[in-house]
């Protein structure tokens, strides 16, 4: 598109960490929208948790999304701590808003590697904000976490529950610190619009079975662990503790289908166009229902038609007994609600894992 002799660039949505699990499904959701031709999608990712076939420029998940949607994704292999690399992305595209996923995200691992987590999640986020400000981009959807609430004082958790108290992992602390930074920059400059989406536990896969969660190494999250046991990649599921004060002694979490979660980001972006919208807003994304580890195992056994062997071991450092969301604010503010069932979560995970037993390596 040109205006006189000056090319006019289409507005672009920048997705950091867009080759990761939730990021890639959000990219798919954005490109599946009817108005997807109105904007460009730009992804930056350092590929620390994404697979790329040798000799290809783009990671497999993005290549498959392009195939499925017949749309182009602009991809840059850039770490968000690289200010020069990020600046180049902003120079090349007319970035209108940013969806910021890029982060390290394993609770247990963060206890063992706190410096790495603070470096990636806090330093990286601050670098991104500096570059956004430099280029006059002030609209941000942030990938936060229910871990900012720490040990719940009461359930379900709503957005008014205190944050930052009794946090059990550097991962949770890093998300909390970033939220505090975002509140401060919104107070200091009214141009900023920040929606911090506090996820509960994303699971499932794209309904096509072509993209899904493909963690490097042994999975840190329950559902891919169960799925890899079901497909024979791993011998048995390790259940971290059965002495919690829950119905069956195993941890209870609010599991949300990744496609519902992705749609939450699409809804959040629309808020930026509402007159008078500004400042920092935190919103829970969950279903409002908690399931235990053993309930998830049973549901997955039904979906895959196989028994899932498991072994109970000690509690994992940083874990809490139970959490699930009060999701009423997401209904009111975003006009969003989770519609996929536990059966959908298990069936879609199994479709992805059984069609791709080695993840993206065999796509």
TrEMBL record:
InterPro entries: Epimerase_deHydtase (IPR001509), UDP_G4E (IPR005886). GO terms for biological process: galactose catabolic process via UDP-galactose, Leloir pathway. CDD domains: UDP_G4E_1_SDR_e (cd05247). Keywords: Carbohydrate metabolism, Galactose metabolism, Isomerase, NAD. Belongs to the NAD(P)-dependent epimerase/dehydratase family. It comes from the Eukaryota. Its EC number is 5.1.3.2. This is UDP-glucose 4-epimerase. It comes from Parnassius apollo. Pathway: Carbohydrate metabolism; galactose metabolism.
């Amino acid at each position: 598109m040109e205006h006189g002799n000056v090319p006019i660039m289409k507005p672009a949505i920048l997705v950091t960490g867009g080759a990761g699990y939730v990021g890639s499904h959000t990219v798919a959701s954005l490109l599946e929208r009817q108005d997807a031709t109105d904007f460009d999608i730009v992804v930056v990712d350092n590929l620390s948790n994404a697979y790329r076939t040798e000799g290809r420029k783009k990671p497999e998940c993005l290549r498959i999304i392009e195939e499925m949607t017949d749309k182009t994704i602009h991809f840059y292999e850039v770490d968000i701590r690289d200010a020069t690399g990020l600046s180049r992305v902003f120079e090349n595209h007319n970035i209108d808003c940013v969806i910021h996923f890029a982060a390290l995200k394993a609770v247990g691992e963060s206890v063992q590697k706190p410096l790495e987590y603070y470096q990636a999640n806090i330093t990286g986020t601050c670098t991104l904000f500096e570059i956004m400000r430099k280029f006059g981009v002030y609209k941000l959807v942030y990938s936060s976490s229910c871990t900012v609430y720490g040990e719940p004082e009461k359930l379900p958790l709503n957005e008014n529950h205190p944050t930052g108290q009794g946090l059990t992992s550097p991962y949770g602390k890093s998300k909390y610190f970033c939220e505090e930074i975002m509140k401060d920059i919104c107070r200091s400059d009214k141009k900023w619009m920040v929606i911090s989406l506090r996820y509960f536990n994303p699971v499932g896969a794209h309904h096509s079975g072509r993209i899904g969660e493909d963690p490097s190494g042994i999975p840190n999250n329950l559902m891919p662990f169960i799925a890899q046991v079901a497909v024979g990649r791993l011998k048995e599921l390790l259940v971290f503790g059965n002495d919690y004060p829950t119905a069956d002694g195993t941890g209870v979490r609010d599991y949300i289908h990744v496609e519902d979660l992705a749609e939450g980001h699409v809804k959040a972006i629309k808020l930026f166009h509402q007159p008078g919208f500004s400042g920092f807003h935190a919103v829970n994304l969950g279903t409002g229902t908690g399931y235990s580890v053993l309930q998830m195992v049973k549901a997955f056994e039904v979906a895959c038609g196989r028994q899932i062997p498991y072994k109970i071991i000690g509690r994992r450092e940083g874990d809490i007994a139970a959490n699930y969301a009060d999701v009423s604010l997401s209904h009111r503010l975003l006009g969003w609600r989770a519609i996929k069932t536990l059966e959908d979560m298990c069936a879609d995970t199994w479709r992805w894992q059984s069609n791709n037993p080695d993840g993206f390596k065999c796509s």
